[in-house]
Amino acid sequence: MSRLAKNKLLAFAIVLVALQVILALGAPWFAPYDPMAQSIARRLKGPTVLNWLGTDQLGRDVLTRILYGYRTSLIACVLAVGVALLAGGTLGLMAAYYRGWLDRIIMRVMDVLFAFPVMLLAIGIIAVLGPHTYSAAAAIAVVYTPIFARLLRGPALVLCESEYVAGAKAIGASDKRIIFLHILPNLASVILVQTSLLLSAAILVEASLSFLGLGTQPPTPSLGLMLSEGRNFLQLSPWSAIFAGFAILFLSFGFNLLGDALRDTLDPRLRGQS
Amino acid sequence: MSRILLSRLIDLVVVLFGVSIIVFLMIRLIPGDAVAIMLGANTEITPERMAELNSRVGLDKPIVQQYLVWAGAALRGDFGTSLWTGRPVATEIITNLWPTLELTFLSLLIGAVLAVPVGCWMAQTRGSGMDVAMRIGAIAGLTIPSFWLGIVLILLFSAFVPGFSSLGYVPFSEDPFGNLQRMLLPSIALALPILANLSRLVRSAMLDALGQDYVRTARAKGLSERTVVYKHALRNALIPFLTSVGIMTGYLLGGAIVVEQVFAIPGLGRLILGAIAERNYPLIQATILVVTAGFVLVNFVVDFLYIVVDPRVRA
Amino acid sequence: MFRSVLRGAIGAGVMMAAMASASAQVLEIGLDNGPTGLDPHLITAFPSFMVVNGNIYEGLTAVDKDLKIIPGLAESWNVSTDGKTYTFKLRSGVKFHDGTDMTAEDVVSTIRRVQSKDIASPLASRLSAIDSAKAVDPQTVELTLKEPSAPLLSSLATIAIVPSEVETNKDILQKTPVGTGPFKFQEWQPNGFILLAKNDAYWQKGAPKLSGLKFNIVPESATRQVGLVNGQYALLPNIDAATALQLKGKPSVKLGETLDLAYMLIGMNVSKAPFDNPKVREAVNYAINRQEIVDAALFGAGVPGGPLSPALKSWALDVKEFPCYKPDPAKAQALLKEAGVAMPVTVTMNVLPRQDVKDIAQVVQEQLNKAGFKVELKNQEQGQFIQDWRNSNFDLFASINAGSPDPDEYFYRTFRTGGSTNVFKYSNPEIDQLLDKARTLSDQAARKTAYDQVQKTLACTGPVAHLTYGTLFSAMRDKLQGYDVMPNRSLSTLKNASY
């Protein structure tokens, strides 16, 4: 693909993600209605002038709830992936830097966590914490921690053995200085790409969990929950389920495209690995 | 080679041991105990009967002892009996295992078989405007929620193909046709992301192969370019394909949990969700352990094949 | 290529579906949840009840679709003049599914089983009036009561007669039920289906007409609907209004309906602030707009209801008799002020995980929040909900409850001080006295006077805000004949159905 096309794709991905993030964070200002306001007379309607995307089973505005749903999903997933990055990144770097028994213990524990299928471990964790948005976020964070740890340990290991880091050690730089100044910046592109891709996946996991009734709970608006509630009324009005499905797709799609385009731009060697 | 295999095997055992401890602890931490749920709205219960039920579930002993008793029996292949149906847990798992295995296998098959032509086609469109469109399409395929796709498929089929039995499960041995008919839609719902993923692998392997020396050599030797490219490209695609099988199995097991719910398929996902809801400890423990062990084993075999296929890793 | 294979597959599928419906006599039923056990004396959940009641098991008496008592395994009975001795004449020629005869001895051991502390049956309180049971001869049973009990005949309809050899066995019937009913247990695949086969030795001539019942467990509502429309399932019993509305008018599908005995409720914990104060409980009732709940959650298919279901025509008071049933948020706020609680009154509401209950909880939350409350919903997982309910660990809860054909069955265990399901810790000497008296009265008018008073007191300041009684629907294929929807959700009329 030409350089120009690559940049265009990246720009498109950035615009797509930024648009959705702005809509989500600005939900209280952009949304035409109160997300909780019920209106039984106007329920289960298709798109109208008053409700652009129709109404749900309690007559709440679907567009409003999708905007707030974006907010719930985004906050939960950013929080979850952020915690996973922090925890997994720290563990992975520590394992690579100090090697020896610490490395072995950390990576064994990570292997064990990594051994679980993602949804299975998430469901187990939620069973312990009780169904809630934050339980889903916590579950996602735990599930993604080993992914970051394993991902960062490899390249960090190579860096640690490089002459460059050996040189820094030789002139007496502190561990902290070496990690933050010499190792982390070199991992930035890997981190950026993977965070974006995992955010995309996390949005689907959060939606699946809410769909199963294990994530966000009513009356809080959430995309997976809207789909789950709307599916009970498909023959009466499929709109809220259809639009919620599209919203999940767009959000997850945006981050995946962003990750993909970033990978192309930052590190063409990684192309084709997913 | 055998040394690598041995050390991998030891890793495998360590991981499974860790998994069993986590599963066991997690289940003890779930609030709301089995006995309370077994009783439901029954409030006539006497304290003695409550204690008796507790001891039957094994909740009255210290946790380390509980674990040792369970792990000891599990090593001998005895996972206990389901608290509700009283049938051996192993039987329950085997009954529910087939639908899930079939679903995962068919999805993988559909995805892999279609990925070859789609990927080759994608490689041919390289550089045109179609290239970008295909790429966006592939990403959309990766991120489409499978449960949503499942519902949409059910509705479309019910509207346009009345009489198509798309729900539930009949064993292949009883009614092969009915079995495949019911498996078609859920497999498609799960296969789409696999197709998207694999076709991208095929595409980049094709592009790689086209630029390789041996293709040029082959061309120079006057061999059919087509044969050479396909042969080498597909072999090249095999390695990333193997690596991603492990990841895809994990995805499929997770996806199956939700899709089984939508299509009323009595598989492992439904078994686990049901077992958690009713705090059926022996059943949850064994099911999560078995599924995870299966997942780990798949990854183990993949690792091993990887070594066989790609000699560079051996060094 | 792919397309033609698909078309072939579809064609063959249509053909097979047609063949199947022509020859099959096993009725395919779609249930939303699987049963957790099949012991008729231990189960408490709807799905278990629907599978066993009247299909696998029968009681001495039975109820018809209008909840009137009719003979069951007893063909007739006599009550002594002091109301303390009941003599039942058993039907002859009744056999259990294992081939043994059902005799008076089995009835006596069944009653002992339900009353046994060791079995700990949730039905025990329904038989608390029985002092002793005696087999006079193989066809005659005599029950001696401690005191007269008006609801006994109605209670006996829910006590399944089981073989005497299982009297002390707590496990066997959960998995392999053996009864006298028109269908016998054949196979249970958890999460898959329960299959019952026709009982060829059934006592009623010509019944059952179906060769079996297959209860398919299908958690997704949309999936069940599609299954009924394309003929894969023949019956979706006891569905809610939203599902019924979506199936209305579909080709070859018809709806049956009746008024539900089960009701939606908000439970209040009176053992702690703020609901220990009757004024706060009254405020809740004024704050709730029941008609709006019917419209919102039940799609208009239902009625606002008091402590007794309007389906109990001879007992239930008209809701117009309860002043607090007229929605009045201002009055609610005034009551809260009088009660001296700090506004907004911040409370948590535990919510049973069912779609209809979740919807109702959201509507009630909005209504209460407009009247001086601040309600937070706590959506729980089933197990946690039940445990909190059992341990009285809640401020408010939203739930659905099965009702009973006789007022005593519900009132006594729920509102009597120390009653077995009085998780609200409600205690009112006036109610206790009325309930104690009413269950011994044999005069219908006198009983009604007592229960009228109970209903009036409970409606506004009781620990339960009764919300609505829904219309109970069943959706079925046109061809299904002879099945009636029962207010108590029993599927016992299937024995006379044909397909």
TrEMBL record, chain A:
Domain of life, per the record?
Answer: Bacteria
Signal peptide residues on this chain, from the entry's feature table: none
> Where is this protein found?
Cell membrane
Q: Which Gene3D superfamilies match?
A: MetI-like (1.10.3720.10)
Q: Does the keyword Plastid apply?
A: no
Q: Which Pfam families match?
A: BPD_transp_1, OppC_N
Q: Which residues cross the membrane?
A: 73-97, 109-128, 134-152, 179-205, 236-259
The protein's UniProt keywords, in alphabetical order, are:
Cell membrane, Membrane, Transmembrane, Transmembrane helix, Transport
Q: How does it sit in the membrane?
A: Multi-pass membrane protein
| PROSITE patterns listed in its UniProt record | ABC_TM1 (PS50928)
- InterPro entries given in the database record: BP-dependent_transpt_permease (IPR050366), MetI-like (IPR000515), MetI-like_sf (IPR035906), OppC_N (IPR025966)
| The keyword Cell inner membrane belongs to this UniProt entry's keyword annotation | no
> Residue limits of the ABC transmembrane type-1 domain?
70-259
Family to which the UniProt record says this protein belongs: Belongs to the binding-protein-dependent transport system permease family.
User: What's this protein's name?
Assistant: ABC transporter permease
Q: Which organism is it from?
A: Microvirga puerhi
Q: What is the lineage of its organism?
A: Bacteria, Pseudomonadati, Pseudomonadota, Alphaproteobacteria, Hyphomicrobiales
TrEMBL record, chain B:
Where in this chain does the record put each ABC transmembrane type-1 domain? 97-302
Membrane topology reported for the UniProt record: Multi-pass membrane protein
The record's Gene3D superfamilies line, in alphabetical order, gives: MetI-like
Positions of transmembrane segments? 12-30, 105-124, 136-160, 180-198, 241-263, 283-309
Q: Which InterPro entries match?
A: BPD_transp_1_N, MetI-like, MetI-like_sf
Superkingdom of origin: Bacteria
Q: Which UniProt keywords apply?
A: Cell membrane, Membrane, Transmembrane, Transmembrane helix, Transport
Q: What PROSITE patterns does the record point to?
A: ABC_TM1
Q: Where in the cell is it found?
A: Cell membrane
For the keyword Membrane, the answer is yes
> What CDD domains does the annotation carry?
TM_PBP2
What PANTHER family does the entry give?
DIPEPTIDE TRANSPORT SYSTEM PERMEASE PROTEIN DPPB-RELATED
Task: Identify its protein family.
Answer: Belongs to the binding-protein-dependent transport system permease family.
Q: What is this protein called?
A: ABC transporter permease
State the species of origin.
Answer: Microvirga puerhi
TrEMBL record, chain C:
Q: Which Gene3D superfamilies match?
A: Dipeptide-binding Protein, Domain 1, Dipeptide-binding Protein, Domain 3, Periplasmic binding protein-like II
What InterPro entries does this protein's entry cite? Peptide/Ni-bd, SBP_5, SBP_5_dom
Q: Is this entry keyworded Isomerase? A: no
**What is the top-level taxon of the source organism?**
Bacteria
Q: Where is the signal peptide?
A: 1-24
**Record's keyword terms, sorted:** Signal, Transport
Annotated Solute-binding protein family domain residues: 68-420
Transport found in the keyword field = yes
**Cell compartments where the protein resides:** Periplasm
Q: Coiled coil located at which positions?
A: none
Q: Which family does it belong to?
A: Belongs to the bacterial solute-binding protein 5 family.
PANTHER family (alphabetical): OLIGOPEPTIDE-BINDING PROTEIN APPA, PERIPLASMIC BINDING COMPONENT OF ABC TRANSPORTER
Q: What is this protein called?
A: ABC transporter substrate-binding protein
| Source organism of the structure | Microvirga puerhi
